[in-house]
Amino acid sequence: MILRKLSWALLVATGSWSTAADAQSNDSVEHYAEEGQSALAAGRYADAEKAFEKLRQLEPTMAEVHANLGLIYFQERKFEQAVPTLRQALKLKPALTKTDNLLAMSLSELGRYQEAVPGLDKCLHHSTDTEIKRMCGLELQRAYTGLKKDDKAVEVAMQLNRLFPDDPEILYQTGKIYGNFAFLTMEKLAQVAPTSVWKHLAAAEAHESQGSYDQAIPEYHEVLKLEPQRPGIHYRIGRSLLGRYWQRHSSEDLTAAEKEFEQELQIDSANANSAYELGELRRKANRFDEAQQYFERALQHYPDFPEAQLGLAAVLQAKKLNDQALIHAQRAVAIDPENEVGWYRLAQIQKALGNSAEQEKALAEYRRLHDRSSQQRGLEPVFSPREVTKQEVEPAAQ
């Protein structure tokens, strides 16, 4: 169901009721017209429906009466009644553009997508009314999905995101469209190439992103059976083993992860992620000289690697080389100013250097980002595994 809050005045095509009443000397027409419009404006749709149904009996050839009544049926979700009523309004006056849009949306709500698509597409691309354009776009997404035209649904989703980049409902609905399209694409991959590297790689990454490491690791090994020297696979196995370690706290997984990262560097010496992970493992084991070498190796190949900059800053700080640590912490927050850990670590280093004013500035930024991130926890990537172990504020320090 598409959420909606229509402004009735934007859709309804009003007639000149008093003129009609004078022409026909019909007090009833004027009475029901005023009563119906007042109820419609107030959102009292049941009362408005009664008044406009009376008007339809009295003025069966007035298109505006049918248009208003169709709008009322739409708002009441009586789409079966809305469709013929709106069609009658358009038959009497084809120029009622907004009524045409409302008809297309009603057809979509009834699941009559084939009939709805032309009107919805025309509405999305030509309507000058922002709210109607938005609603037509959402209904068009729904219609294309119902017709199994998923590529078309994605096109509409992309257009809606451009038109309404901060609309929560648009973001939710288009997110579902993208997710469904990704699923269908992977499903097709499994059908056309069930034993390929790509199928095993897709399955492995999907399992890893969901935390199903026992399923991800065998799929990555299937990739290596087909392509033993394929870059990146030992790294992903290592990341999966680390994930499993945090689930089970088995030292065997930690040891195995290190070996995988080392194997990755043998295949691809420029793999900065593997060098970083080895550096982080050494840092946490207080093997600071080795950790420094790995972090520096990662930065040699990827200078703008904020996590590696922070890891190296932490190592240098532990070695009491605060002047050098400051350079890397400042570089990290310059690359990624939204990283709260970077600001906290920068504050620690400024404190060690006796720079109280700079420490307070960094702490203030840390607190701002920390408060914001606390409200956004759980918003992790849905379809891709996390790339690297994130730097954290040490529990004791926090």
CATH topology title of the domain at 8-165: Serine Threonine Protein Phosphatase 5, Tetratricopeptide repeat
Which percent bin holds the helix content? over 70%
Q: Spans of 5+ residues with little confidence (pLDDT < 50)?
A: 1-25, 379-384
Which structural class should the secondary elements be placed in? mainly alpha
Continuous helix count? 21
State the CATH class of the domain at 8-165.
Mainly Alpha
Mean pLDDT: 88
What is the architecture of the domain at 8-165 at the second tier of CATH? Alpha Horseshoe
Pattern of helices and strands: HHHHHHHHHHHHHHHHHHHHH
User: How far apart are the first and last residues' alpha carbons, in Å?
Assistant: 45 Å
Give the biggest sheet. none
Percentage of β-strand residues: under 5%
CATH superfamily of the domain at 8-165: Tetratricopeptide repeat domain
Shape: elongated
* Radius of gyration, CA atoms, in whole angstroms: 31 Å
Write down how many β-strands occur, each being a DSSP E stretch of 2 or more residues: 0
Describe the structure in your own words.
It is a single chain. By secondary structure, the chain is mostly helical. It has a domain at 8-165: Tetratricopeptide repeat domain (Serine Threonine Protein Phosphatase 5, Tetratricopeptide repeat). The protein has 21 helices and no strands. The protein is elongated, with a radius of gyration of 31 Å. 39% of the residues are buried. The model is unreliable at 1-25 and 379-384 (pLDDT under 50).
Summarize the structure in short.
This protein has 398 residues and is mainly α. It has 21 helices and no strands.
